[in-house]
Please model this.
Amino acid sequence: MLPCRPGRPPGRTRAARLKAAPKTEYDTGTMASLKGRRKREGSLGQLASAYREGAAMPLTLMNRQAQKADLIWTKAEWMALARHLHNGNEPFAFVMGFSKDGEKKYVRSKKVPVDRAISWAWSTIYGKPKSPLAFVPYSTNQEQQSRWAGFDFDAHDGDAGRARRLGFSVWQHLLNTDLTLILETSGSDGWHLWVIAKEFRPVAQWREFLKGVCKAIDCPIQSGICEVFPPDTLSRGLGKGMRAPGSWNPDTDTFSEILWENSGPLIASFRPIMQLAHSSSRSCMIKKEHYSFFSSSDTGGGLYARWEAEWKEQFSISTPATRNQKLCSLVGTVFHQIGRGMAERIARAQFEGRKAGNSKLEEHLADFERAWEGMNKRFLAELTAEERTAVDALTTENERDAFRIIWNYHRLAHEGGDDDFPIAVADLGGRLGITWQGAGQLRKRFVRDGIIRPTASFVRNVSAARFTWALLFNDSADETANEPF
Model:
C-alpha cells in the first residue's frame, strides 16, 4: 500500500471525500462530480437559465455549498486552466504568493518556472506541502492581449454583504454571454469572479467590457470595493494578477472556494493535451493527481509529442519583433522536460513555422544556444555539491540531459509529497530523442552510479519501474519562498 499523502487520512480518496462533502437541498452534485457533472437534472446550467429568464435572485445560489478546487477539477484540468490563464507569458513572468515569518508576500518569480509553480500551487490545494504557494497569473501579456478578465470585490472595511451583493450581481449580469465564469470566495470575506475567453482579446477591449459591466450594475471601480483586471490604469507592462481559481490565500491561510463555474466547454478544449498526458501516465502508472508526463509519438525519430499538442501554437512566431521573446519562452518551458538536441530541433521547427520576421535561421539557433546556456547555469546553481559531482562525472550530452530530466521527476514527486517516481524508458527516450533501449541503458547506469535507487519493479502493461533519488537533494527551494523569486 502506498503511503498516505501528508494531511490526508488513510483511505480517504477523492471520491470518498466528494461523497462526504456537505451539500444543500439545491446542490445536485454537479459542481463536485468528477464525471458527468454537467449531465444531471437540476444542474447549474438550469439555474443559469432561470437567471437569464429574469427570475429574482433566489436563495439557491446563496445556499450553495462552496467547495475547494480539488472537488471541482482534477489536477490535469486545473493545471491546464492555470496555463491558459498564464496568457502565454514567459516562463518566469508570473507572481508567486507565499508566507514568510507570518507575513504574506507576492513576488515575481526569478528562478521557478511556471509549470513548476502551477504544480506546486496544486499540491498546496490538494495536500499540505512544507511551504504553501499560490500561483498568480498576470492579466496581460507582452502583446497587450489577455484570455481573461477578473473582478475582485473586497470587504476590507468589514462590509461582506456589499462584496457578496456586487459579486452575485456581476455574475448574474454575465450569465447570458458565451464566456466562462468562475465565482469564488477570495479566502476572506470578499469574492472573485473570473471571466475567461478561449482566445486572446485586446486589453483595450477587456477594459471597455469591464467598465460597461460595472456601470450596468452601478458598481464603482474603486480600491477596497471593486478592482478589475486588466486594470484600467495600465499603460505598459503585464498589469496585476489574481490568485488562480481555488488557490491558497497567504494572508488568511485559507483557500478560495468555488461557488459556481461553467468551465466545462473550456476544459473540453484542453482535452487533446490532457488525453496525451493521461495516455503517457497510464503507461508509466503515473497518478493523474501527481504528474503530467508526455511521451514521444515517434520515439527516437520524431519531435517530442507535446510540440504538436501544445507548444507549436503557444510559441508560434506570428507577429513582428516577437521571435526572441517566443524563443526564450520556449526554452524556459522545455528545459527541464526534454534533451538539448530535441529542444534545438523544436527551436528549428519553431523558426521554420514562423509567420512574421526577417531573421535568419543561424541567428535563431545562436539565440537558442545563449538561452539554453543561461538556463543551464541556473540549473547547475540549484544542485547540491553531491549532485554537481555526479553531473561532472557524466560524459555525454544524453547522460546530462537524462540527469536533468530525472532530477525534475524527483523534484515534482518531492513537491507532491511522494518518496519515489516512475521512469518509463519509452517516455524518457521520447524526451531525449533516442530509442527506448538507449534510455534503458541510461537508467541502468544511473542506478549503478548511485544517482537513483529502485523501489518497485516493472510490471508489464501495468506500471513502470519506480525509483527514488539517491543523492543529497536541496529542498530549501520549497521550504521558504524568499530566495527563489
